[in-house]
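Good morning,

Attaching, inline, the backbone tokens for the sequence recovery test we're adding to the shared suite. The designed sequence is right after.
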């Protein structure tokens, strides 16, 4: 989801640029005036509260406005994001919006300010008044509007500068150049929004094959720590030599090595839409490590998928696999298969439970055919990320 607030003094050209942003990035336009009028017209509970306040000559409170904004956002779950116009207008409203975004498990990604000197704004609005005949486009009224904008808005801009989401655009440029500059800002921000999926499942659940198919289908980078370690061994890199020695001595590969490989993978994977992780994290400790790695790269986990398969079916599949070239070391005996499944239950299930507290975990029945499971996983991903198709 992409959330933008567009700022600019009267005459900066916000209206023109808002129309462009809405169409280009398929955003839902939120103007506090528009959505308030809709509530009033529909005589909703909030609308009636606002109507009573207005009838008494009062201003509609922030408490009502934020409820209307939240209602609007929740009523439009399928959009790519929201464009805020006219909110936040004050320092207090900036805090309100930040709290609302946290509640909705999202954030305001960009506050774009189209900056125009006061004298240019005055000249533009006076010229607009000559064309439109608007009585409020006279110099005295214009300067009062600009003063009110500066008094209230500068603290808001400072707030978002401190949050790192403020970006400014030179509004003296042509409309096309302003549009191009805004598009570049949005594209840079979108590039940070990687789609990161963790796919869980017991050994034999098919998570590896499904993970690779999903990666190919949606242009994601498949990250399997086991394969990465094997590649290092094959390439005979210093890391590979270290891992080989650990394997030969029956030791586990420490997280320090795996962290390096995952970070290298992320840093070397340019122009991908995101990553799908298989086999990591396996433990609670590793889940915190992965969260930290992604945060370092200004990203996070977006989706958790768990493929469930009946225990007896898992044993049957792994026993069958043990007789093929795809056999894993733990496929060598029924005892080792059961031990590996037990390890998954004791170490990895708690990780899934942790993520269930933080994310929407999609549980997929893995007993069906490969194509059916792939279809179910694809449907789940596409329902969560409308622009991935």
């Amino acid at each position: 989801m992409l959330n933008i607030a567009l700022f600019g003094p009267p005459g900066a050209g916000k209206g023109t640029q808002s129309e462009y942003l809405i169409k280009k990035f398929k955003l839902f336009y939120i103007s506090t005036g528009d959505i308030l009028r809709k509530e009033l017209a529909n005589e909703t509970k909030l609308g009636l509260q606002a109507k009573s306040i207005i009838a008494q000559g009062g201003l509609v409170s922030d408490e009502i406005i934020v409820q209307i904004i939240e209602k609007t956002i929740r009523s439009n779950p399928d959009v790519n994001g929201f464009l805020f116009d006219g909110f936040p207008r004050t320092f207090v409203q900036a805090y309100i919006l930040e709290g609302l975004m946290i509640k909705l498990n999202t954030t305001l990604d960009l506050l774009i300010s189209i900056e125009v000197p006061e004298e240019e704004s005055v000249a533009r609005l006076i010229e607009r008044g000559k064309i439109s005949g608007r009585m409020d486009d006279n110099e005295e009224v214009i300067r009062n509007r600009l003063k009110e904008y500066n008094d209230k808005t500068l603290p808001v801009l400072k707030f978002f500068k401190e949050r790192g989401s403020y970006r400014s655009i030179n509004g003296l440029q042509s409309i096309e150049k302003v549009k191009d500059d805004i598009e570049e800002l949005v594209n840079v921000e979108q590039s940070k929004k990687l789609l990161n999926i963790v796919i869980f499942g017991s050994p034999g659940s098919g998570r590896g094959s499904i993970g690779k198919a999903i990666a190919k289908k949606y242009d994601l980078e498949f990250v399997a720590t086991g394969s990465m370690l094997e590649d290092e061994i094959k390439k005979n890199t210093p890391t590979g030599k270290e891992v080989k020695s650990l394997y030969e001595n029956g030791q586990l590969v420490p997280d320090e090595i795996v962290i390096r490989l995952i970070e290298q993978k992320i840093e070397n994977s340019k122009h991908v839409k995101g990553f799908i992780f298989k086999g990591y994290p396996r433990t609670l400790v590793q889940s915190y490590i992965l969260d930290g790695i992604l945060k370092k790269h200004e990203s996070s986990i977006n989706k958790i998928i768990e493929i469930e398969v009946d225990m007896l079916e898992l044993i049957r599949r792994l026993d069958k696999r043990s007789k093929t070239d795809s056999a894993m070391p733990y496929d060598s005996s029924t005892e080792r298969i059961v031990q590996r499944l037990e390890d998954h239950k004791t170490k990895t299930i708690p990780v899934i439970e942790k993520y269930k507290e933080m994310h929407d975990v999609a549980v997929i029945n893995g007993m069906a055919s490969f194509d059916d499971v792939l279809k179910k996983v694809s449907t789940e991903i596409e329902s969560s990320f409308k622009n991935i198709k």
